[in-house]
Amino acid sequence: MPIWKTDSIISDLKTLHPLIIDVENTGPDGESDTDNILVTVKGDGHFYVCGFDEEDDIVDTSFAEVELVQVSDGEDSRGGLNRKDFESAQAYIYIRQYFINKGFEVVNTIDDYF
Hints:
Layout lengths: L2 E3 H9 L5 E8 L8 E6 L3 E8 L10 E3 L2 E5 L13 H16 L3 E3 L7
Parallel strand pairs: 6-7
Antiparallel strand pairs: 1-5, 2-3, 3-4, 4-6
């Protein structure tokens, strides 16, 4: 199972693509198993990223084995990408593929699992 490491993910995402202009840890929110990461995209787009696991309880929100990662623009309760601008769409593809390449299963929203 892939390992969520908040600091490494933030560092990687900051250099992933020039459209990504800021990445910050917004801490755990009580719904996800990991810290939440806010990714700001050129223009006015944002993505909310967090990890979770259906099976195990997570103790350390910054370093944990998780299967699933949510990537959502927060525009719609269905999660995923709902924005229509090119910058957000391109950044979404890069962010999603980053987590897939790390071995995570990327989903639109946590709500589909709980």
